[in-house]
Amino acid sequence: MTTVDDRPAEQTAEIGRDRRRKEDQRLITGRTKWTDNITLNGMLHLAMVRSPLAHAKIAGINTDEARSASGVIAVFTGADIADIQGVNITAWPLSAEQKTPDHLPMPLERVAHAGEIVAVVAARSAAEARDAAELVDVEWEELPAVLDLKEAATDAVLAHPGLGTNKSAFWQLDSLEGGTGGDVDEAISAARADGIVIEREYRQQRLIPAFMEPRSTVVDPTGEQVTMWSATQIPHVLRFCIAATTGLPESKIRVIAPDVGGGFGGKLQSTPEEFITLAVARKLGRPCKYTETRSETMVSGHHGRDQWQRLTLAAQKDGTVTGLKVELMADLGAYAALVGGGVPVLGAWMFNSIYKFPAYRFNTTNYYTNKTWVDAYRGAGRPEATYAIERLMDELAVEVGVDPLEIREKNWIKHEEFPFTTVAGMTYDSGNYEAATARARELFGYDELRAEQQQRRESGDPVQLGIGVSTFTEMCGLAPSRILGALNYGAGGWESASIRMLATGTVEVITGASAHGQGHETAWSQIVADRLGVPFENVEVLHGDTQIAPKGMDSYGSRSLVVGGEALVRAADKVIEKARPIAAHLLEANVDDLDFAAGQFTVKGTDTRIGLTDVALATFAAHNLPDDVEPSLDADATYDPVNFSFPHGTHLCAMEVDTETGATKMRKYVCVDDIGVIVNPLIVEGQVHGGLVQGIAQALWEGAEYDEQGTLVTGSFVDYTLPTAADTISFVTDHTTSPSTYNSLGTKGVGEAGTIASTPAVVNAIVDALRPMGINDIAMPCTPERVWTAIQTAGATQDADMPSDAQPHFDADAPNQDDPGSTTEGAGQ
Amino acid sequence: MTRITVTVDGTSYSDEVEPRMLLVHYLREVVGKTGTVIGCDTSNCGACTVHLDGRSVKSCNVLAVQADGHEVTTIEGLAVDGELHPMQKAFHECHALQCGYCTPGMIMQAIDVLNENPNPSEEEIRVGLEGNLCRCTGYHNIVRAVQMAAGQEPPGDAGAGATADATAGAAS
């Protein structure tokens, strides 16, 4: 580890240790509690009847045959559960003017995308339910569907005719208006006259989160509380959504997320399937289970990304950037999902990345189409932003004629300039881009690979070598509640923790951050073990059940450790302060004379001491406590972050490109991330590796594709090409450490870093390999076919060799190119 | 309905099943072996991998009636008297799992890879695991775990976090 911060590192027993995970034992022996493993007495199984059409009126539904099929108990349509089915809400309307179609779990009149549910069968077995679902006869009146984002912008065909437009909302962040920078139009005009203007349009293809555990929900309506087990990232938020829309009082709802098999944002949702299972269970008064097939996951679970990005970068001739203008079009799919229109907005503060741009404007216009809804997928807004700026910085380097690392260094924030307030208005507390880059360069063998690239170019090797750079930052730790409020988000961003000191010396930790593979049980144990001086093994971490952990905002946005970990520290500190007067009483000492360290209260200057767990036992007995002290050491804390955290890193990727076939092969990948203080390096490495592959997969393999009828043709793992072990390589990872100054542990968050950084590194490498052929872009995923086609058509359509003043400029009449001054309805920043 | 007799994790079971029932449904719903899970419906993901007479199969790709008279080992039958199988230990030691959903199938397949080839190269391990999808780990630490279970010196300290000295170029 390369420590670049000169703050003395606190030597602690557990934090920083590569503890093997507590969670593993049950997972490696098959003693798991996935939702689909739950079976209750009298439980019925549900199967959904889904629309095969992208847009259609429901003219009639005949359920007679299904009702009389073997094992069937009931069949319901939307009309049958209309009184209790609730609504799938969006938490983030971007403005008061946002157009938001009603999203009923089971629509009564019209479906707006293929895969929407129009009827549900409840039967004694899953097989019988599925058989009977085939017998439900739906009469459709097909409506014209809008499937393409740019066509949606024309309003020629409407995804929701009742809205009168496909446009959901417009949202802007402008540095001149916000007082955080200059006028971007002025910067671009000046660069056109005497500088460099780079104009590009990039496509962020639609992706599918593809967590490994299909979603599943079990509802038991027979107790005093209705209990829902669900494969969700957000039991607490889900409980709120149910209470807010179904008429069930919040106090009558218990939501449990048992073992959850991955999420990546894909389980950050309140889903039609959850609401329908709840409604059917309540109607029938019996426990019900619904487990989706993978094909259903693909077509109905929300997708990610799906943007067009039009970008204008202005710079002086020496490569000093003077302004950046971002014009996004974002496809929300058929409905505004939970985070929904807010996902592109999460990128607004990140297009300027690690750079000192003097002027900046971000516009996004969000549209509806008749496709699966779109919401958060690992990184959510920030990978899109990072991709755009890191691709642009490479283009700028080419224009100036310098190395891509050099152009970045010319523009990035120097380490002595922190804290630094960016042109987007965010204050980055700490970082050291020089150190991370130097270390990555060294591990990569940058100069040697550049020399090999040159040699291959000169020899006309059919396999060319490209080197891709991505120097990223991200904002983690969602989120300060006052900022969420200012952005019109429907909730706060705090997190909660409780610590219970048990009589026999063990400790229960309750966290509101609900894990689904991240290893909270291990990392939280390490934090508490250090703070309270108790053995790692004696800490039990409880989460994911609204009855056990009543308060929480759950896990997403790389927030668990940064926000939830700080709540934990504060709860632990409260335990110590509650124990202090009792310890003083037991030691017959003055409270002010006690020191607490390594689990022991010691009277200053003596060896008189008592352990915290002994105080806990004495408190339990409560025979000998000071007056006016309650017999409890237990403590709660709810922490609202003061700011985001800003991890960063330098990623370097070498790709070999076969110019005869278009095949690409990853040769080497090095990343040096600065995520602040690391609690468990083993878990951190795992997060980085997995994140890298998800980002690499966007660059090379994945993409959700629809046909002209609106059918998802990548609707299974046969067609949606997830990477395998044979497609990927081993990675070289390392860290520099600039502790966050915004929380007491100095942590910054790592869950999304790899995904955010890796996509542009890979595409930059492929383009770099082919640059001498006149290629300056290849659309993602960069399949061999696309790479081969680019090579075949190079020179005819590519413009990399043209002087910058001859580059085509955006057509002022094209969609999403309106003068921002005339389209600023909706909320500005 | 057809009567089948199958030995699962050392215990013999005799049941009436529908001829169309998949082995994975038999294991989960009839025998109660929920350690074996379902991740897709196209036999791509490998989460349901078990051993049938000692060879790995995707149990969604085998009918229960085809297992009649045969021996099935699932993830739940690997540990003997509480002692974990070396592959289970290696997955834990190398942090080769995160959410753990692919893990049962991945471990069963990894054991099969080493049964076939006790000393595989990294490339051979990667190809051997190609039919099993993992969305969390990026496969890096899974490969390390198989190397550890094979008794190979890992190319760098997979467990210590900073794997800067782990050589890259695995695919080269």
Automatic annotation (TrEMBL), chain A:
This is Aldehyde dehydrogenase. GO terms for molecular function: iron ion binding; oxidoreductase activity. It holds the Pfam family Ald_Xan_dh_C. The keyword Hydrolase does not apply. Keywords: Molybdenum, Oxidoreductase. Residues 819-829 have a biased composition (Polar residues). The keyword GTP-binding does not apply. Residues 29-144 form the Aldehyde oxidase/xanthine dehydrogenase a/b hammerhead domain. The lineage of its organism: Bacteria, Bacillati, Actinomycetota, Actinomycetes, Micrococcales. Residues 1-24, 795-829 are annotated as: Disordered.
UniProtKB/TrEMBL annotation, chain B:
InterPro entries: 2Fe-2S-bd, 2Fe-2S-bd_dom_sf, 2Fe-2S_ferredoxin-like_sf, 2Fe-2S_ferredoxin-type, Beta-grasp_dom_sf, Diverse_Oxidoreductases. Pathway: Alkaloid degradation; nicotine degradation. It comes from the Bacteria. Residues 2-78 form the 2Fe-2S ferredoxin-type domain. SUPFAM superfamilies: 2Fe-2S ferredoxin-like, CO dehydrogenase ISP C-domain like. Residues 156-172 have a biased composition (Low complexity). Residues 151-172 are annotated as: Disordered. GO terms for molecular function: 2 iron, 2 sulfur cluster binding; metal ion binding; oxidoreductase activity. This is Carbon monoxide dehydrogenase.
